[in-house]
């Protein structure tokens, strides 16, 4: 590595690769990181990293027959023909990427349940990591990652962009001052049906709470500094588990009937409802699904509401004021603050918005550690770190286990009596019917 260059490898195509991840790294290759620091409130560091060159050296995906890595490499070549990006394939493709291309940074955009192996192998090779959310799905895996990162003095950052949503950030950073002690947080994030039925072949290995609930958990834990102590969860398995029976009816109900490529049952939750009690007595209610109708007015449905003893606040994406009605597309709300695009005079497109902000924060932390010698400890609060995600993963893992046990009880007519106690090592199920 030259003194002022970072080589980045990207493993996985990711749902938002074309929209956010790929465009973010094209921006970095074109103009570096300094120009993006204002979006995370770190522009005072621009001069220190202005000359650092960011270069994507390789992209890897598992299935060569799909050609995803090759398509991405060709897409980079359109703008950077003299800086070839290698396309790699294989079951453990990141191993090849680490050995043959010696990156400084591994960006992990694999499915939720497949983050841990490439993270650990990258850390073992002395490579810093930025990973898509959630960090992982088990507390034991978080602890492995934290131990490996500490042993190698490496950064592990997580792409959690909701932390940088300017509406959310403004409300959350002033919440206690304005609203007083908080009694309750209510957070909703719902993904469209196509995510679980068409986009993700791996939906059965995760659930909507793990996939997007982690965003609101991160926001609440980060800005409010709260510690979870217990979890209650229930969920529904009415549509996806019986997708072989319901898909034709879903298609029939649409004005323009649609056939679905996936016909088999999908053994995962339609939705999960999770209640978390925190050490200060506050309750957090998190509601997530990935069966929201395609016809819904926005790309997603998301809102967060705080209830304090002196006031309350709410951020609702659909209330931000940008609406369109277009023939063939219906009435839609837009959110360019997430991933807006600006066309430059030279013809290149540049991304703006909070969709790239957590990637910026993670890469800045890596630059400051690798190139400027700043201590990992002093960087901890400047980006969504792996350490900050331990309590998030504890809640995700506990909620999944509680919901499954309660679903079993419910099927037998026994109600939903199970909760979980958050412990130092993870969680303990509390089932009053056991034994």
What does this structure look like?
The chain is of the alpha/beta class and 435 residues long. The chain has two domains: 5-161 and 339-385, Rossmann fold; 163-337, 2-Layer Sandwich (Dihydrodipicolinate Reductase, domain 2), CATH 3.30.360.10. It contains 15 helices and 18 strands. It has helices spanning 17-31, 46-49, 68-79, 93-101, 116-124, 139-152, 166-173, 175-179, 193-199, 208-224, 243-253, 336-339, 357-370, 376-379, 390-411, and strands at residues 5-11, 53-61, 86-89, 105-108, 128-132, 156-159, 182-192, 228-236, 271-278, 283-292, 301-308, 312-316, 323-326, 330-333, 340-343, 349-352, 419-422, 427-430. The strands form four sheets. It has an eight-stranded mixed β-sheet with strand order 12-11-7-10-9-8-17-18. Strands 3-2-1-4-5-6 form a six-stranded parallel β-sheet, sandwiched between helices. Helix 5 (116-124) packs parallel to helix 6 (139-152), helix 7 (166-173) crosses helix 10 and helix 10 crosses helix 15. The longest helix is centred in the last third of the chain and has 22 residues, at 390-411.
Sum up the structure in keywords:
2 domains; 8-stranded mixed beta sheet; 435 residues; 15 helices; 36% helix; Rossmann fold; 6-stranded parallel beta sheet; globular; alpha/beta; Dihydrodipicolinate Reductase, domain 2
Strand content: 15-25%
Query: Using only CA atoms, what is the Rg?
Result: 22 Å
Shape: globular
CATH class category of the largest domain: Alpha Beta
The order of strands across the largest sheet is 12-11-7-10-9-8-17-18
Question: Strand count, sense and closure of the main sheet?
Answer: 8 strands, mixed
Assigned CATH architecture of the largest domain: 3-Layer(aba) Sandwich
Helix content: 25-40%
CATH homologous superfamily caption of the largest domain:
NAD(P)-binding Rossmann-like Domain
Fill in the CATH topology of the largest domain: Rossmann fold
**How large is the count of helical segments?**
15
DSSP strand tally: 18
Count structural domains.
2
The helix-and-strand class reads alpha/beta
What does the average pLDDT come to? 95
Low-confidence stretches: none
The first-to-last residue Cα distance is 60 Å
